[in-house]
Amino acid sequence: MKWGIFLWAILAARGRGELVVHSATVGAEVFVDGQPVGAVPLAAPLELSAGQHTVKITKRGFTDFLGTVEAVAGETRELRAELRELPVTENPFRPAPPPARWYEHWYVWASGAALVVAVTAALVIPAAFGGGPSSCQDFPGSFCYDLRRH
Prior knowledge:
Blueprint: H1 2-14, E1 16-23, E2 29-32, E3 35-39, E4 46-49, E5 51-58, E6 65-71, E7 76-81, H2 106-128
Parallel strand pairs: 1-7
Antiparallel strand pairs: 1-4, 2-3, 2-5, 5-6
């Protein structure tokens, strides 16, 4: 407790206050009045001269936080900053999704369905009209070999 009072007395005498920055976005860079002061989480509170200061917190792929804080001599102020991740369509730092695999394309499934329909039709239609499988009688010539004769 003594050290807290002692630190407060030193800060007040020097006309300085402290700023504690809170953010869930680890690694975000913190700037005070345009000068870099560290990254979240900061190791210690920032010591600021009394008066108004501009605070910017930024990280690639996230929206920037921009705010002002009034530093008062001998006091500690807290700043809570929420950085939101940019949508995938607007985020140049997020990798593009991987290309679709061959079976994720609509035309693969449409072609497969068409093949099933064609094979089914080739088997069902002749059976429905009384004919059996075709034989060499239907296709005379050298390219037809009737396995039933041998």
